[in-house]
Structures are given as C-alpha cells and as structure tokens.
Amino acid sequence: MDVYEAMAKRKTIRDFDPVEIGADVVRRLLDAGFNAPSHNHLREWHFIVLQDKSMRKKLLEQTVKSRNKDEATKIVDAWGMTDEEQRRMYVDAIPKQFSMLMEAGCLIIPCFRQRTALLQPEVLSSLNAFASMWCCIENILVAAASEGIFGVTRIPFEDERETMKRFLGVPEGYEIPCTIALGYFLGSTSKCNCQGCLRGEEYFVRGAEAKCLPRPVIESVRHMLDFFPGNSRQLLALGEVLAKQPVRVLV
User: Fold this and answer.
1) 8 A C-beta contact, residue 141 and residue 10
2) Are residues 62 and 172 in the same domain?
3) C-beta separation of 110 from 137 below 8 A
4) What's the rounded mean pLDDT across residues 30-51?
5) Which of 160, 46, 59 has the alpha carbon at shortest distance from 109?
C-alpha cells in the first residue's frame, strides 16, 4: 500500500475489537512517527504504550467521565451545535470516550518537550514543539492505516492532563497532547472467497468470525452508495438491515 492509499483509507473509529496489537507492529508505528519533521531536529518525543488493562482502567477512571446519550445531547445543545451530521457524530462519540480508550488494541500516550507555557504562547513559534508532535502523530495514524489498523485521538481537558501526568510520572517540562487509541474495527477487515458473493470484496465484520455478504446485499450497498454519494454515513447499518448479520460497511 502506498502512502496515498494509506491516507485515503485512514478512518476514525471508536468501536474496537479488544484484540491486542503486537509489539512488533507498535514498534513500526512509532518508527513511522519518528520520521516526521522536528522543529529543532532533536525529536524530543517519548511514548507511553499502556497495554496493561488494569493500569489503563485505573487511569481512565481518574480522567474520563462516562456519559450517556441524553447527557451527550445536552452537551452539544450547550455548545450551540446545529449541524445535524456534526451533532450525530458527537452524540455517538461522547458516550464512547471511556470504552474506546479501554477496549483499543493499543493505547499510546505521546509526550513532547515544551520549554514555555503551552497554553500561553508569546509568539506563534512558541507552538513549534506542539506542531511537530502532531506531525509525528499523523505519521503514526497513516502508518496504522497501512497495517489495516484504525483509531482515534482524544485531547484531554486540562484537569485530566495534569492527572495523567502525575499518574504516569511524566517529567516536568513535558506535555501530553492527546491519547491515541488504535485497533481493529470490531474484528478485522476481511476478504470474501466464497462463490456466493463478489470474490475479493472487502468488508468489515463485527465479531471474531468473518461472515460474507450475499451478492444481492453487496449490489444493494453499491447501488445505494452510487445513488446517495453524500449520505454514506446513513448507510453504515445497511448490511445489518438487509442481511440480518452484525455487519458494518465503511466507506
């Protein structure tokens, strides 16, 4: 997969198969991050890979508040959010903040050296270290997509960030820009090889065991995507409705 294809395939997901990402894959992703440009050529970046689920749970219980959809709706109302697609995305995402970090196959906490007050920049270049760190994070996300791994970044609130730094023992002078949750979408990307559907069609399957979509279902999905190209989000459950299988088609 070339870099353009990886960038096109990168997706934000919040529903993870809890299978752990192997250490060799994590190393490749971090190596890709270190290939990003650095403002001072020092790459003063460090990464905490929190795979121990008990430690992860302790951290999240201190930093991430669980909310339901009713609470999420009140939050987006308070924010004055009016775009329906944006509202739907946030109402879906807010209740998943704890679970997505807990269930991800890999949780990476990047840290970078910040020599001035991060939230009180005197000039634009005061944010150079912050900008370089995000170049590194983008490399990790694109590299992950090339491995068939997707994820989500979550920027902590200020009180959460300070709690995280204390819990993880992050040294003075280093900041945490976000957490990176990576993994496989409720199972994996699979290719169908049976005679009953389109050979080689790629689809996402919920659960550990892959199930193929019959040809009429795939053709229906394709027809709907062609007819409503701007409304692909509304088709996420189409496979589940038509095939009565727990399938999500991603575009």
Assistant:
1) yes
2) yes
3) yes
4) 96
5) 46
Main-chain phi, psi angles of 234, to 5 degrees: -75, -10
CA-nearest of 107, 185, 110 to 145 is 185
pLDDT in tens, 124-183: 999 999 999 999 999 999 999 999 999 999 999 999 999 999 999 999 999 999 999 999
The number of beta carbons lying within 10 Å of the beta carbon of residue 5 is 11
Please indicate, yes or no, whether residues 170 and 208 belong to a single structural domain of this protein: no
CA dihedral 151, 46, 54, 10 (to 10 degrees): 10
> Rounded to an integer, what distance in angstroms lies between the CA atom of residue 185 and that of residue 167?
29
If one counts every other C-beta atom within 10 angstroms of the C-beta of residue 104, the result is 28
Amino acid at 29: L
Per DSSP, the three-state class of 42 is coil
DSSP state, residue 233: G
Q: How are strands ordered across the β-sheet holding 187-191?
A: 187-191, 202-206, 247-248
Residues 98 and 216 in one domain: no
- Biggest CA–CA distance in the chain, Å, is 64
DSSP 94: G
Question: What is the pTM assigned to this prediction?
Answer: 0.74
Q: Are residues 109 and 218 both part of a single domain?
A: no
